[in-house]
Specification:
Blueprint (H helix, E strand, L loop, with lengths): L1 E8 L2 E13 L4 E11 L8 H15 L4 E4 L6 H9 L19
Parallel strand pairs: 3-4
Antiparallel strand pairs: 1-2, 2-3
Amino acid sequence: MGQIWLIKYQSQAIGYVVLTFGYSLEYGGCDGWIDELYIQANYQEQGIGKQTINFLEEVCTSFNVQALHLEVEQKNTSAQSFYRRVGFEDHNRYLMTKLLNKQK
């Protein structure tokens, strides 16, 4: 289950964000994942990303979400810096994935 929003600036679509929901005993209930967050390069570093994160936090609070997660590529240090500035923290875990039902 999840939701998708277009990010608009002056009525023009400049990006999108995808939020999915799950359940985690460790985090005490419903948790959310920012599955995708994209803002066109020429609109970055203008506060739009921070507004988007704030919006997602409000949405999650309204759904009683206990934790909000995201993943970011290790080489994308500018995104990591942004996410730290808006309150996300590193933790001692390594995300691993097994793809199921792969199409060949």
